[in-house]
Amino acid sequence: MTNWENKRPYGQEPPYIPLWKFKIRFPGIHYRWEWPDYIQGLLMGAVCLSIIPVLQDVLGMPFEVALAIVILNGFLYLWHSWLGDPVVPGWVTPAIPLLVAYVSSFPEGPTRMHALIAFEMLLGIWCFFLGSTGLAVKVINAIPRSIKAGVILGAGIAAIKLVFDQGGKFEAMPITVSVCALVALYMMYNRGFQEYAKKNKVLGYISNLGILPAIVMAIIVAAVVGEASFDIQWGFSKPAFGVLWRDWVPWGTLGWPSFDMYLKAIPMVLATYIVIFGDAVQCQGIIRDADPYRPDEPVDYNPDRAHLVVGLRNFIMSILGPDISMCGPIWAAMTVVIYERWKKGRKEMDSIIGGVASFRFGTFTCYWLAPLVTLTKPVLAAALSLTMIIQGFVSVYVGVREARSLVDLGLAGVIGGVLVVKGAAWAFAVGILACLVVYGKNFFRGDVTAGPLWASQVSEEAA
């Protein structure tokens, strides 16, 4: 038996240091380092950098300050594996366009920053509270299905609007965004390509990389059509932590938000939390599907632990580096990729904790390497557009499937439309009133007379 087989006997988790609901682990001590996942993370760090144009456009941040925020967020990504959460964490991607619209409703400058800080701090406190009390399921079940569907649907439409709105990212790089978005959609959702990728190892590996191949395509297309010019630099990147902590945080010259900023943020926090809870459910689904392949390692995914880590990350970022991407529980595409490799057996990946941790160490390394940062910098707007288009695609069909009946779906469409145009506070107000008028005493249960909207499709798939 190898050293790691001694450390983790068959059928047991990797060793850890218990601390409340956390399981603390360090690389090389509690789990094996996984070089393939580290290298993959090194490449995929380019996706994380794509939030920089949003921080620049919406908040007016210099590039180096925005890079410092990405690096801080990247450091907190490492906390998930460190504290025992067996997934690849990421942004709260569906809520990004909603948060952009929310903070943009405030004047640019200190007021807008205060709105972001109050929101992210309150979101962190809320998630930590739910994680520590175990009330997450009860809270989300108390929200009518129509409102949940409307929020997710509205988030998807807002994501597309963010790209194609006047002055949006599409106008800056129309050819690059168009070509690369079509490539990404084809590779990720075309059934013919997916079937062929199952038979071809190279295409199978490429298809598992999410939007990274499309970002590589963006670099090539942008250079060919002249929509971007490249100035690759060597050495290490130069994030401006000093400027960040002097001018962009509440304990610096910016000051703390007023109490009314926290009150105004409550509807946006609830809308964002609907997305976060959905991500937590997705985590459980991915792990449940992968579990039968590895009886040698039981995977302990605890939603309370995930909420606690997400809460800590958002609270810390609100103080040290307010971030529009927010701190979410999962990067779904890469979590699936890591679990696919884990499913191949212990020789391929000893422990899932090793895989997700090594991947996030790889992305964290990427942010510090000037060649990778400067290579992707000219196409970050296209990379963000790709992310939003794919997110819009996913959010719309997830939101629609959340509806139980056509009445639910109709209400969700109204709520989603209000969310995009007027924001979260109006959307919740309209949603509550509409559900009361339509469903009355069945406000929480929704349409109890209709069968599931997708029953016929489920029956066909089962057959």
Beta-strand percentage?
A: under 5%
Taking pLDDT < 50 over at least 5 consecutive residues as the criterion, the unreliable ranges are: 458-463
Provide the number of structural domains.
1
- The total of beta strands comes to 2
Which sequence of strands runs across the widest sheet? Answer: 1-2
- What is the residue-mean pLDDT, rounded to a whole number? 90
Helical content band: 55-70%
Largest sheet: 2 strands, antiparallel
Count of discrete alpha- or pi-helical segments spanning 4 or more residues:
23
Topology record:
Layout: H1 3-7, E1 17-19, E2 22-24, H2 35-48, H3 52-59, H4 63-83, H5 96-104, H6 110-133, H7 136-141, H8 145-164, H9 169-172, H10 174-189, H11 191-199, H12 201-207, H13 212-225, H14 241-247, H15 259-290, H16 303-320, H17 332-342, H18 352-366, H19 370-376, H20 380-402, H21 406-422, H22 424-439, H23 455-462
Antiparallel strand pairs: 1-2
Helix pairs in contact: 2-18, 3-4, 4-16, 4-18, 5-6, 6-15, 6-16, 8-20, 8-21, 8-22, 10-13, 10-20, 11-12, 15-17, 17-18, 21-22
